[in-house]
Amino acid sequence: MQLGMIGLGRMGNGMTERLRKNGHDVQTFDPAVESRTAASLEELKSQLDAPRAFWMMIPAGKITEDTFEQLLTLADEGDTIVDGGNSNFRDSQRRYAAANKKGIHFVDAGVSGGIWGLEVGFCLMVGGDDAPVRRLEPVFTALAPADGYAHVGPSGAGHFVKMVHNGIEYGLMQSYAEGFEIMDHSEFGLDLEQISGIWRYGSVVRSWLLELLHSAFEQHGSQLADVAPYVEDSGEGRWTIAEAIAENVPAPVITASLYARFASRDEVNFAARVAAALRNEFGGHAVKKA
User: Fold this and answer.
1) Which of 78, 79, 81, 77 is nearest to 95 (CA)?
2) What's residue 290's pLDDT?
3) Cα(95)–Cα(65) distance, integer angstroms
4) Do residues 95 and 72 touch, judged by C-beta distance below 8 A?
5) Are the C-beta atoms of 54 and 81 separated by less than 8 Å?
6) What's the average model confidence in pLDDT over 57-71?
7) Catalytically annotated residues
8) CA dihedral 98, 132, 169, 63 (to 10 degrees)
9) What is the mean pLDDT of residues 220-225?
10) pLDDT at 246 over 80
């Protein structure tokens, strides 16, 4: 099947290669990559037969919005635009409505797999109308491992499910982080690389994330000394919490994990200074000098 891939970063490049290995004809556009097949979106369109399928694998936000608007002016009736980035599901619903007015299909595809997707496959959570999703299923099934693809619902559902997926990921990562910090501070001089290694086999907390943590310990040492203690967020944890609030659903673990990421970025940690100063003022507790 033919596909126009827009964006050849870590994910887009791996997806393109996996599709080509499975016999699909993938034309590509990325202004920052020389190996692209097209130098513009217009040229990309000319390399595809109607009805065309354009897959955006680019960062959420302005670049996705600008590319979508360009595609709306270029695409013909019956073509399909797929957004495989981490867009907000509300934006996907809006884009679906805008595309629908022009007779263009819009599909939102939540994609998980990271840099390992080329080798083991990408988990795909797809939202959109039945007809365009069915037409693109050969692409979805080629990208995904066995049983790793589902059409989860109408427009927006794919990115909604991916949003919650990433919110859960925040909580899992923070739980591992806290547990290993407790062990790192213990009196036993524990070998964290060894422990993460044995937990991969038979333990109830074994997971792919734990395997990746063990790999990180192997590469960087048990103290992860060359890894800066600064944790960024992509925005999906915030969106998950916002939806939890809107739906009156308590999400304390995901919320706390997001706040922990915020705390990691504060080198000064003024709030801790305030608390230490107050303890000194009301109780005479000693204050450590900076």
Assistant:
1) 81
2) 63
3) 9
4) no
5) yes
6) 97
7) 162, 169
8) -40
9) 91
10) yes
Instruction: Return mean pLDDT, the chain.
Output: 94
82/104 Cα distance (integer angstroms) = 11
How far are the Cα atoms of 241, 242, 253 from residue 250, in angstroms, in the given order?
Answer: 9, 11, 9
The DSSP symbol for 49 reads P
CA dihedral 187, 192, 196, 199 (to 10 degrees): -30
SS3 27: strand
Other C-beta atoms lying within 10 Å of the C-beta of residue 148: 18
Residue 28 main-chain phi, psi, to 5 deg: -135, 150
Report the interhelical angle of 157-184 vs 89-101 (nearest 10°). 160
Span 164-214, pLDDT tens digits: 999 999 999 999 999 999 999 999 999 999 999 999 999 999 999 999 999
What pLDDT does 271 receive?
77
DSSP codes joined into one string, 88-155: -HHHHHHHHHHHHHTT-EEEEEEEE-GGGHHHH--EEEEES-HHHHHHTHHHHHHHSPTT-EEEEEST
φ/ψ of residue 106, rounded to 5: -130, 130
What span, in angstroms and rounded, lies between the C-alpha atoms of 67 and 233? 23
With 0.90 as the threshold, say if the pTM is over it: yes
- Count the residues in the chain: 290
Phi, psi of 146 (to 5 degrees): -55, 130
**Residue in the block written with tokens 């709306």:** 72
- Looking at residue 283, its pLDDT comes to 79
